[in-house]
Amino acid sequence: MKKNFKGLSLMSLVFTMLTNFMYAQTDSLEVASIYGFYSYSSSLMNASSASELTIQGNASHTATGVQLTPDTSGQFGGLFINGRSFTSVNGLHVEFEYDMKTGLPLSGTYGDGLSFFLYDGAVTNPIIGAAGAGLGYSYNRTQNTYSAQRKAGLSGAYLGIALDEFGNFKSKRFQGDSRVNGISGVTWGQSTSHVTLRGARGAALNTTGLGLGFSGYPVLVTRSTLSNTGVVGRVLQTDRSYAATSNTLSSVFDLRNNGGEFRKVYLDLIPHFTSPTTTDGFDIKVDMQTTQNGTPVNIINYYHYKTSVPYTENANPQTTDFNTSDVEGPATSQTLDATVPAVLKLGFAAATGAAYQQHIIRNVKLTLPYAAVTNDDVASTCKFQPVSIPVFNNDIAYKGPISITTPPVASNTNIDYKTFSFTKSGDTDLVLYRKKVTPQGTWSYNKATGIVTFSPSNGFTGTATMTYTVKGRTVRDSNGKITEPYGDTAYRSVPATITVNLKTSGCIYSVISNGMITQDVR
Hints:
With 522 residues, the chain is mostly beta strands. The protein is built from one helix and 37 strands.
């Protein structure tokens, strides 16, 4: 029905407008998360003062992110987000951008690559793993001649994901200066540019070399990004053998972007339900976006990382590592305890050797799988003129039970308008801010329409920005049990930014001339 204000008095009209204005400004409170999880986001740019970050080795803070290694030989660096831990019951969704560029190849291949890893949140002072092919995650054993190069794997390690440009992270090695389990006996069609998953730290097996930190970390799955033909990947089987991977990439590419734009990695750990109330580890999915705004390419497609993993410890000395013999002994069958830690922490590492390149990471985000997703918005206005912004047009929330076989549906219609909030003061801030006043102007939100309105102040020039977050809805069954948890605070989106630019031309203003209102275009 068309609205007609002709019969309203001026006072009634003003009252109606004020009522709507006040309705849009009311702040409220949300309930604390029952899961104890809060999203995390950091650009890592000029982040040297961030208290939750710790760097090791040759890593350094730069204006474009954390440089794990410069483009010189023999470098090794790590970054721990050690001041933050994340509950694991609902899984994790991780995003980060990386850059591999410049440097010098060996036999046509640059090196070595970088790793992203998760480790037990109970570890307060983690120690990075081995350099070189270990990429800061796995171990390196040696015989006595090279004892200075012995290095335990990452302390508290649960899962390592390598962007292995050179290709050695997946491989079994047994030689004087390098002994580590892995895949052997494969003539690879593409042995370089691999995305590889290694598992948790193993138990201490003996006192002759395979002590704590020097066993386990088995290769779970690996896949080259360079080809869809030939032997391009392997996946660990329950009988401890490795079968050929069968997934076909939608496009092939080199992990190294060679100085182009940053690439983006998406990692999902989805709880693997064996019954409606029981889980066994995670289903792991790794995607990569190789061009800006491009469709991500699926590399690892829901590998089931179980809490108990049969594997082969296959780089064993005949008697001991603590002599100068290079005689290899028999492999042994082991079972890895990969129980999921109650809380997880995360970090990154990279290494270079005779082949080298620069490794940089930035824009790290951690949310829960199927948390709401908000994207940046841009609008413009003129002096003194408010602008309305339908911010949810490019945002999503999820609906449906959590499952990898029938995933929940993503849509902006699943957003709960009542959960909107402008910038919060911190992760545990439970206030839902519906109005923010800044020197540039006033930001207001209408929870009935989902519209954000920016009203510029008299002195506003240039650009104004504001961030916001939102959630989906929680659904319970007839017994009150949560079947869809997307309204919990743990599923709140990472903040998106609204940017409003002041237009300097094409604006129409009312100008009083000879007692009558005319329009003036500027």
